[in-house]
């Protein structure tokens, strides 16, 4: 029995875990948070929650929190606690010194999808208006950057097309490369309810996840493809739809570029895209692909939900385009119950992209090369904007190793643990003259930092998060910042230490600046958010209450574009030395690298990372259930315990990456998406062998 006492007050705020964006009442006694109660008026969750949002907030008050700024001359020196002014002056002097010696482009920032829109906006503004370059990138680089490219190219904007309510009107749900049960549990509940009511389910995933089958529902088709072959499978579905006459021609004539469509038909109808032709590559029986395609095209309202199993591939952007093509081919866009819906992993992936974190885009997905857009921000910020796109995270790291990129401000992101090819990330960080880590904890990246600025948890600040359905939710301060300042204040202090004269006194003023410069946010104010509860962008004169469904009358870009999707095999090949394919995912009770969930006082959150391996592959290697095994790739190796299961097919192994000891990213490669450099986390050729343990 947990004695929580009687709450004295409550504050409505938004969960800081996944992109569902559940809202909670934080119940307080004095300055102590005693309980998080799912808020029945939360439009994404309607009173529901999962274990993470409800119970895993103990990290916010964990003893590991660093509450004093710290600096050190060299990364081999011990940390020295200093005052905020001393830390900020030290950081500003170093960054200014680097730019004076190595040029304007020698420093940059990484924003976080964990932080609020307002904080993210300020960090990219720091790069553009203070560093005077576009060297800003976001941790969305390593998750949903292909969504930005793929949906931007085909539909004109990088966002899910539907609201979550829409799932209640779908007849067919096509889930690709996602396991909503573990990753987006509250959305999964709504999907499962619809499935229990009779909607049909198609899952495309190498692994038989919990989302494939559960109480009172079961996927009509589970296409257990070989990792890395999404494009071949989705294109084969399009081939079936086109060659069997299942296209919605009226929709295409009315809404899409007809000439491009005809070129696309010529391409996709080619026999090389037929399910029978790709069977050997994908490992999926042709009749399964044909049946799934027919169901998607003819089963009524068909909605696509996808996750990182789509994006984190060398053809991540191509798969997003292939998915967008499927929806246009069948007219499944622009009304309730249909659409293309990226399930965002972190609470503010959508927002961090919206806020101009990418090196080629200013807020609102407008290219830095566009002089009219630059003029808007030049007028607002009073500085010239660099017209050339800046460096992406992998480019920053490469440039650091080469010696031309020497200073980094990294807010709320542990790139050493999260990004692929750990050795390369470490070498890059070690080569820099100034690494500023702004975080709650001394994370792995901080081992290479010269300045540590204590961060604030979501309970300690005002702001907004934008969820996977473009819903802007308020984050409200529940308690005072433990280190004295909210994150947006720290960024402002750093900017001012470098000579800027920012004077925001509340995040609502930052949102006012966002609204004044970004048309899709023009109607967003904190007052309106308080009145309406939340707002889905675009929100402006055309849509004063926001926009639950996008592309209703026409696509944002005008006519929808069909783009060819040629399957190209990944460079990551299996062979005699590395004969198995590793893919990765997460479990319900853990979250990403576990920085928050591992700091929660409940044994349920401490399940170790294990390696799922098919019993046949285990037997041929002399491995029994629970044995220690060595997992080795061309990049590195680690040790973990074996879990023998037929959830994975022979030839495929699977693990999670919630614990730093597992070091899953020591294993992953430096292959990445051709368009966006999103790392290919989901396909690594590996060998598994018995081990005596770590
Ligand atoms: Fe938080 Fe996502 Fe769970 Fe909702 S589903 S409580 S947003 S982790």
From TrEMBL:
Gene Ontology molecular function, alphabetical: 2 iron, 2 sulfur cluster binding; 4 iron, 4 sulfur cluster binding; formate dehydrogenase (NAD+) activity; metal ion binding; molybdopterin cofactor binding; NADH dehydrogenase activity
Keywords per UniProt: 2Fe-2S, 4Fe-4S, Iron, Iron-sulfur, Metal-binding, Oxidoreductase, Repeat
GO cellular component: membrane; oxidoreductase complex
Residue ranges occupied by any 4Fe-4S Mo/W bis-MGD-type domain in the UniProt entry: 8-64
One Gene Ontology biological process: respiratory electron transport chain
Segments traversing the membrane: none
Similarity remark: Belongs to the complex I 75 kDa subunit family.
Protein name: Formate dehydrogenase alpha subunit
Lineage: Bacteria, Pseudomonadati, Pseudomonadota, Alphaproteobacteria, Rhodobacterales
Covered residues, full protein: 253 to 946 of 968
